[in-house]
Amino acid sequence: MTQVNLDDSQVVKNTHNGEIVLKSITAFPDQCLQAWSEASMLKFPAEYKQVKNILVCGMGGSRFTPIIIKELFKEEIDLPYVINDNYTLPKFVSSETLVILSSYSGTTEEVIYCGQEAQKMGAKITGLCLGGPLAEFFKSHRLPAYIFDAKHNPSGQPRIGVGYMTAGHMGLLYASSFLKISPQKVDQALNKLPQLLVNFHQSIPTIQNPAKHMAQNLFGKYPYYVTAEHLQGIGNAMGNQTNETAKAISSYRYIPELNHHLMEGLKFPEVLKQIGIFVFFTSSLYDRRIQVRFDITREVVEKNGLQTLEYKLQGQNKIEQALELIGFSSFMTMYLSLLYQQDPSVVPWVDYFKKRLKELSK
């Protein structure tokens, strides 16, 4: 491939749908503000607030967002909170379960099926989507739900409209009384977000732009994204965006879990030394024991001959850092798609799979 200059604005203009995708990514703070302000105002029947557990059904870009919320607010969500990412509902689902149906497009087959099954099991049902059959399901059964107008995501891609699903889930949980958090704290983080992301914009040259710099370092590599604690769920999001936006392979891991097995798997195959790269997302807010583990893990990785990178979160609290890293991921994977000369707006193999699945399911 010919060398791509990320500082040349013409590169984005010459990439099919590049401008519209970058516009959506830059509007991430606007997506969050809209979704939080709207979803947090939802009204729920009294019986919804008596449930004893929460089950979220979602796939892909509509799955990693509730995972982000689950890990970010582990100490603020006061009920068991489970993610379901297949057709089968857990046996514990009952009238005492709040089932949240998560599908950006409102067309996700697995989520729609789970909604129908949850209704049969007597669960309390809510959710969020843009429209489609899922929106009709909510409306026809008069279920409280956040159906949004994605006016700040002209790309139409769920992973690029991540602000709607992340802040939407956050607002929905707050409105249903299961997320114990100060709305002022959320507002402050959302208002600060544009400042946290300003150095990732396309107009900022690579030498001063952490997102562009990392994309260049990941070009031609197999990245392993390493996070922990309140940022744990965002590693999953970065893996998704790397796959779909940049059309590149990636993995995500988290500390301390990886310390119990992964380090012994760095020896083979030999090609891993050439293509493997570990990206450590560090935070001063991590527990001190976790910070020590990051240092030692990086040492072990480098002793095995693999390259490492580090990004230090700048946000002053957990919400700020989570939103910062989501924004960073969107910009970075966009730049990586430009380096690979790929259209960041399409997912041809996912579309092919869905088409074949529909053909073979007749």
From TrEMBL:
GO MF term set: carbohydrate derivative binding; glucose-6-phosphate isomerase activity; mannose-6-phosphate isomerase activity
Q: A GO term (biological process) for this protein?
A: carbohydrate metabolic process
Q: Does the keyword Magnesium apply?
A: no
Limits of the SIS domain: 44-187
Database matches in PROSITE patterns: SIS
| InterPro entries on file | Glu6P/Mann6P_isomerase_C, SIS_dom, SIS_dom_sf
Q: Which UniProt keywords apply?
A: Isomerase
Q: Which family does it belong to?
A: Belongs to the PGI/PMI family.
Protein name in the entry: Bifunctional phosphoglucose/phosphomannose isomerase
Cite the source lineage: Bacteria, Candidatus Gottesmaniibacteriota
